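Table S7 (text form). Paired inputs.
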Amino acid sequence: MNMWQQLLTVFCILAALPLAVKVLWKLRLLPLALYFLSTRLFFPEWASAHETACIALFAGCVLFAVVLWAVKIIHRRREEREIQADLLAR
């Protein structure tokens, strides 16, 4: 890879980063992505030395996403039932 290709690659990554962060947050997967980035890229030695803490962090990130998805689904179903009840009452 020459210098221009490297610069173009870095520019594309930096340009796509805000969109990726926004999509990950909308899907409630940003904490999980940050977990994987930190344990695999930035601190692999710490992660291998503290396996129990890493497993707890991973479980917390997954639980965060699952709970928020469940809350969103429950909220939407409740809203649909209220709209149905309102329409049937008319």
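Next pair, protein 2 of 2.
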Amino acid sequence: LAAPDSGLSRSHSVVAILPMTLDTPNNRKYMSSADFSSWTKMEFVAETVKNWLEQPESRPKSGSFAKFVTKKDVTRIDIAD
């Protein structure tokens, strides 16, 4: 979809979101002994996508991979084109 002649409008973007582990109730339930401080919070993912929608200049270029890496409850986003 991110290819130049895919038919997708230029005002749209395709960005793959790659979290390591999402912090969800089911993940906590079934992996209760895991280190939750390395899990990406769903609120962080939602806020990031919301910001990208509201501020198109802040979003990665179309075709990018956004890897969400969380350590000690701090998440960074590594972008690969």
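The mean pLDDT is 95.
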